[in-house]
Amino acid sequence: MTTSLLDRLKEEKIIAILRGVPKEQGKAVAEALSLGGIVFAEVTLNTEGALGMISSWRETFGERMKIGAGTVLDLEEAKEAVRAGAEYLVSPNLDEAVVAYALEQGIAVFPGAMTPTEIVKAWKAGATAVKVFPMASLGVGYLKEITAPLDRIPLIATGGVRLDNIHGFLEAGATAVGLGGCLVNPALIREKRYETITQNAADMVGAVRSWRPGDLN
């Protein structure tokens, strides 16, 4: 299961990160993303009502979307997320107990890491892919440098990825990218501008589909 989910992520290349979305608007936001072509959506556990949203969205969207839990900081949170129906777990850190539990449950897990040592440690612990964070601070040049020796490890670049630089992150070797504010920001949610969220998603999905290796060379 984890292999097939990773294969799908390699095709889609985008995980939408939903943090702080009011639960009463959650389904409308997820629908807006789905209409724009987003398949992977991660609800962070520091969002009020996150577990309920994960359960509800799994039921609503079925195979149309792959719903995961983000900001999974420890084993207890991992267990709660899996009970809620999360199809994968995403963390900003490496907690080997979380990775081991995900493997035991047969679901994908994307722990966070920054340095080459941390990335390799996460991979050896059994990570399906490794979330490289915070890319907004590290920059695309950093990603390009570390993917040269670590090209066997699937890396998810998270933080600072936008429409104007997503091709650069893919060219630097990112297997996928995590997108938050450039898709869904608090103002759009507050103003219920779901059509703009759909357009943001469509623009990003279009950018991914138009990219070909070597485009920037």
Beta content comes to 15-25%
What would you report as the Rg, rounded to the nearest angstrom? 16 Å
Number of strands: 9
Give the end-to-end Cα distance, rounded to a whole number of Å: 36 Å
Mean pLDDT: 96
Strand order of the largest sheet: 3-2-1-9-8-7-6
Main β-sheet, in a few words? 7 strands, parallel
String of helices and strands? HEHEHEHEHEEHEHHEHEHH
Residue stretches low in confidence (pLDDT < 50, at least 5 long) are none
| Structural class determined from secondary elements | alpha/beta
Number of helices, where a helix is a run of at least 4 consecutive DSSP H or I residues: 11
Helical amount: 40-55%
Overall morphology? globular
Task: Summarize this entry quickly.
The protein is built from eleven helices and nine strands. It is an alpha/beta fold and 217 residues long.
Walk me through the structure.
- This protein has helices at 2-12, 23-35, 50-61, 75-84, 96-105, 116-125, 135-138, 140-147, 166-171, 186-190, 194-210; strands at 14-18, 40-44, 66-70, 88-90, 108-110, 112-113, 130-132, 155-158, 176-179.
- It is of the alpha/beta class.
- It has a 7-stranded parallel sheet. A two-stranded parallel sheet has the order 4-5.
- α9 links the parallel β8 and β9.
Keywords:
217 residues, alpha/beta, seven-stranded parallel sheet, two-stranded parallel sheet, 9 strands
